[in-house]
Design goal:
mainly beta; five-stranded antiparallel β-sheet; 12 strands; about 30% strand; FN3_sf; E3_ligase_FN3/SPRY; FN3_dom; FSD2 protein
Length: about 180
């Protein structure tokens, strides 16, 4: 029977013509939904750490921060400027650095000077709000000993020095 069936000529003509070419399907809603699934949100604001002990020299500061969320971050934008009481001075120019890590050592700073820092996180979706501002201070310059004013006797010595810093120094340590 199968052999007889296969020998027969079968007419496969359709009685109606297919109408595929005129149909337009709108995929815009599906495309929007797919795009929203693939987008990552802009990161949250990082948190700048307070200045750590021994994180400063006379001309450099090591600034650290953290991101307390699971946000995707490509890099950070660190902004800083010297703290000044003078309105709109040239020294108040804000500097900006792009950094991959959650820390940065800034060099070529002035001794015994306060600097204000803030940091933002960046990814493909945008930039986070800036962190709260933190103030860091560089170490004072070593004082200059006035060798012509040194006096000594059997039980005492008088040593005089002067600070080269513009801002007042809190205290000095003298080692014998």
């Amino acid at each position: 029977r199968l052999e007889e069936f296969l020998k027969k000529k079968v007419d496969l003509e359709l009685s109606t013509l297919p109408d595929f070419e005129e149909r337009v399907i709108d995929f815009s809603e599906v495309e929007q939904l797919m795009n929203s699934i693939n987008t990552i949100p802009a990161p949250c604001a990082p948190v700048i750490n307070p200045q750590a002990p021994n994180a400063a020299t006379g001309t450099s500061l090591r600034v650290c921060w953290g991101l307390f969320s699971d946000d995707t971050v490509e890099c950070y934008q660190l902004c800083y400027k010297p703290v000044s009481n003078e309105p709109c001075s040239d020294e108040q120019t804000e500097h900006m650095l792009k950094v991959k890590e959650t820390y940065c050592t800034i060099t070529n700073l002035l001794p015994n000077t306060q600097y204000e820092f803030c940091v933002s996180a960046l990814n493909a979706s945008g930039i986070s709000p800036p962190s709260e501002r933190a103030v860091y201070v560089t170490a004072p310059s070593p004082p200059t000993i006035k060798s012509k004013k040194i006096r000594s006797c059997e039980n005492a010595a008088l040593v005089c020095w002067e600070s080269r810093d513009i801002n007042p120094v809190d205290s000095y340590t003298v080692e014998l």
